[in-house]
TrEMBL record:
Similarity remark: Belongs to the cation transport ATPase (P-type) (TC 3.A.3) family. Type IB subfamily.
Enzyme Commission (EC) number: 7.2.2.12
Keywords: ATP-binding, Cell membrane, Membrane, Metal-binding, Nucleotide-binding, Translocase, Transmembrane, Transmembrane helix
InterPro entries: ATPase_P-typ_cyto_dom_N (IPR023299), ATPase_P-typ_P_site (IPR018303), ATPase_P-typ_TM_dom_sf (IPR023298), ATPase_P-typ_transduc_dom_A_sf (IPR008250), ATPase_P-type_domA (IPR059000), Cation_Transport_ATPase_IB (IPR051014), HAD-like_sf (IPR036412), HAD_sf (IPR023214)
Pfam families found in the cross-reference section: E1-E2_ATPase, Hemerythrin, Hydrolase
PROSITE patterns assigned: ATPASE_E1_E2 (PS00154)
Name this polypeptide is given: P-type Zn(2+) transporter
Entry annotated with the keyword Translocase: yes
Reaction(s) catalysed by this chain's protein: Zn(2+)(in) + ATP + H2O = Zn(2+)(out) + ADP + phosphate + H(+)
UniProt domain P-type ATPase A: residue ranges: 118-215
Parts of the chain that traverse the membrane: 39-60, 232-251, 257-278, 562-586
Keyword check for Transmembrane: yes
Location in the cell: Cell membrane; Membrane
UniProt source species: Massilia phyllostachyos
Amino acid sequence: MMKLQNTQRNVLLMAFVGAALAAGGLLSALGDGRTAGGAWAVGAGVVLLAVLADAAVALWRRQFGLDLIAVVAIAGALALQESLAAAVIALMFASGRALEDYAEKRARDEMSALLARAPRYANRHEDGAVVRVPLAAVAPGDRLLVRPGETVPVDGALSGSAILDESSLTGESLPVTRAAGTAVGSGAVNAGDAFDMLATSTAENSTFSGIIRLVRAAQASKAPAARLADRYALLFVPLALGTAGLAWLLTGDPNRALAVVVVATPCPLILAVPVAIVSAMSRCAQRGVLVKHGAALEKMAQVETIFFDKTGTLTGGRARLAASANDPALRPEQVLGLAASLEQLSGHAIAQAVVEAARERGLRLDTPAGASEAPGAGLSGRVGDREVRVGSYAFVAGNASRPAWAAGILERAGYDGSAVVCVAVDGSLCGVLLMADAARLDAPRALRLLKACGVKRIAMLTGDRRDVAETIARSLGIDSVMPDQTPASKLEAIAMARAGGVTMMVGDGINDAPALAAADIGVAMGARGAAAAAESAQVVLLVDRLDRLAFAVRIARGTRRIALQSVAAGMGLSIAAMIAAAFGYLPPVAGAVLQESIDVAVILNALRVLRLDMARAGRTMGPEEVAKLREEHARLLPLVDRVASLADGTDDMPMPALIAELVQLNAALQEHLLPHESQDDAALYPRLARMMGGEDPMASMSGTHREIFRLSRAVERYATLGACDDGASRIALRRTLYALESILRMHFVQEEEIYDGLSA
């Protein structure tokens, strides 16, 4: 409120002295110089009184005001009866203050928009009616109505589908559709029809309330560079007054001293850095990165070493189907469908991951019967007319020896730390599912972007064992791995790194909170991370994407560069103007205009921060389009699994069965896979190329298509000729199938990484 009052007062002062200057100019043109001088003096005097009042308040608060130069300049001009110069100086000063207020408002708009969206009421169902209640009255379990255009008041679960604008939470500009039962965070805006939801938190503990607290803390902060600028500006005051006094003393002309004081402005220091910092914080808020204070932004511009936690930060934090193997007598989708049908009855996280994998692939799940669960071991029951057991190897297969087709995948699970789900049908082991916490899709790109920003070292700090940690680290290109870490040893590693430069720690869990606080910059994955981590961090990623961190580092470095440019250019021009004024080449009125021009240039240059990294505007993909493209891949995954399964069984299958499988596989490739790849190459890739820029950015991906077509043609030849009756032919076929499977999996991942990058 006080800031708003000051802004309004500065605008009124500017309008008043502007009117006085115009009135005096008209009177002077009419030949009434005496009255014109009085009008100019009145306008300058009002501004002078306002400045003196501010100076008095500052002194009362034991703060040294930088308005001393303005006081000396206006008072000196009036004392020398330079009323026109006094009015011009007053106008420049008042307009400079108004311009500063505008720049700060412009820079803070994005964060203020978050505060403006904070809901105050909720619509609660009570006894068959909808009642408007204060937000504090909402409790977990309440059934709430959210009307079109309203903000979701608390965290909850959707009773039906909804279209939501989540830009205030994630930075994603396009509305997204959420299905019934989906968790929704407070702060999202209803962009469709009214819907009901079940509250799962109080207003105080909701997602948006936490964001509001962080935003208010960010708005109240002041960066060290801004405080340092204030101190440098204080040194500038005696320099300016000393130069003015020396010019008067050596020339005997008080007008030269006045001119020096007029142009002696520390505004490039006291304006450029704060405006640039706040602009950068606003720019980051647009993309779902909340920087709590300017100090974190300044340090981010100088970061040299970044430590990452593994689980939930570099990885997704939940199990996903990474690989599978099965008895050649069954197809992969059959095994997964049977396992997922039974796992529907288990609440275990791994069981739910199996169900999710089946649904991603579009498999139909049956309702199991007669199910029983052995805690910690597995689940058994009937699915259709089949007896199915799912769980550990011992639970499913007992003491039976490992079949040849399962040896490789079980060995892989041993060295990469993945969970194994074994599947038996009618008493026989028929499949092994490898469930792993895979690396985030955007993690490789994020790390590459951070290196491109100038980060010298990226390390992983994790409590996981070395072989598991190194598997993830090598796949992501991480410089060093520190496994088997405790919270205390993480602190030691960070302390050692801080001795050599600015460090950053990125994590999401409660056990990461001490490390986040110990680093120069702590970054919390706040989209679904622990509240303790978000409270300990200086930067919170409100959207669950690591590449937004690289964006924030780019903005921080660009902001520092622009701020230093503004300070150097602005102070250089001010000092040059002081010298010119001291030698009599710059009269007071012209000096006031020049001083204002310098201030405007400095502020406009600082506001360039708001345009940083905007080159990609209009070259992004919407989330629903990306989801559709990923769904197409998910529908093709059973076909890829089928290629791998046939490769596994090539040596042992009877010739008629092998040829029959080849014919069916070839038909599926011709009907589903090849049209998909052809359509991508003809329609999707040209569009992606336009988004990415450059002459031919999709060349390597098109080359992969050609290899897929070649390998598919080889499969077609084997299926048509039916010539696999000798060992050499079977070996060649197996190699072809394994090559096709590998290139398809790699190709899908590469495409999804591109989609993910273009939706960032």
